[in-house]
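Q: Hi! Curious about what Sortase A looks like structurally. Here's the sequence.
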Amino acid sequence: MVRLRPGSYLLFVLLILGIWQFGSGAWILLKAELAQHLIARAWQQTLVRQAPVKPWSWADTWPVARLQWRDEIDLYVLDGASAAALPFGPGLQRHGSLLLAAGHRDTHFAFLRRVKHGDRLTLTDMHGRETIFRVQLRQVVDSRQASLHAAGAAPALVLVTCYPFDALRAGGPLRFVVTATPQSNHHDPVTI
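A: Let's find out. The predicted structure is below.
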């Protein structure tokens, strides 16, 4: 009979815990990757049907637009900005003439730190119509004091994420806000 030393038990427990943690992390990454493929498929079906298609049967959101920046970013934008939807992509809400998209600073909207004044953002709706927006304003606001006023405002796309980008904790009061307006040759922005 083989006798294990007391330190061997600790090593065995630590090994099992390490495998568990690695497996949990790999599972989360695998689910995230699979979700993006399902969302992309739902977007293609949405374009064909010209009506929302859920990426999986129990999803509480669906792709309503596609957002592109330069040749670097190509995101599917989901309906609403619920806590359940945001891990899968930015969420879109309409506030009067404003299209407000919210996303996580460390995943889908991490690129906002590199967006500059005058940059082009392309938003495609579920009917395949594209609207080109130009970035007009980049600002950091305190969410406890700032609010959106859409009444009578010109159409705009507003992208919002937590700030600062490299904060150790998410959920502080500061938000990084990018405001873009339709290019002058586009009279009817996308309809979401």
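A: A fun detail: The longest helix spans residues 6-49.
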